[in-house]
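2024-03-11 09:14:02 INFO queue: dequeued item HCNGP-domain-containing protein, len=190
2024-03-11 09:14:02 INFO validating residues
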Amino acid sequence: MDEQDTGLPTDEMARIRALLRPPPIPGVDDWNIPPEPTGVCDPEIEAKLAQFHALKRDAVHPKHFNDSLMSNRSFRNPHLYAKLVEFVDVNERTTNFPKDIWDPDDVREEWFADRIAEYQKTRSEQQQAAQAANTGKRTHLEFTSAKLDSSKSRDRDHDERDRGGKQSGGKRYNPYVKDQYGRDKGRGWK
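2024-03-11 09:14:37 INFO prediction written
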């Protein structure tokens, strides 16, 4: 593949390939992928693959194997996956990594949902107990009255009027009040 095929310079393609290439596994060459076989391929397998490629690349009616599977009525069974796994005897939790890098069977008990729920319940109970112990310490607040000088009382009257208090008769201005036709009343006092 060169610049004419993709429209990208070859050095750009090399950079993209380098970014997409997964990091090597220490002590394992080429991710333990076996080399390409040198022997002759089975002619029946080659013929079958050639037939699938021809069906897929048909200009008039292209067919893909997965599309034909999905359109097959017997594959619409919701339990089909479980039956196929059982029939083929596939271990769904296996991995291609060596056990020292990733072991899917190394599952700790505290990772299960019931253990997590128990931990959350215990933690919640502890927090509630700590909160109850802290709230019992202070049950009463002492309030003292302060003298009001005349300047503060004027400020308070002014604040009450602005908030719709004494001076305005308890009414507050509402700019969103509309009349029966949906028009702005202009005064908006409620």
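2024-03-11 09:14:37 INFO annotate: The chain has a mean pLDDT of 78.
2024-03-11 09:14:38 INFO item closed
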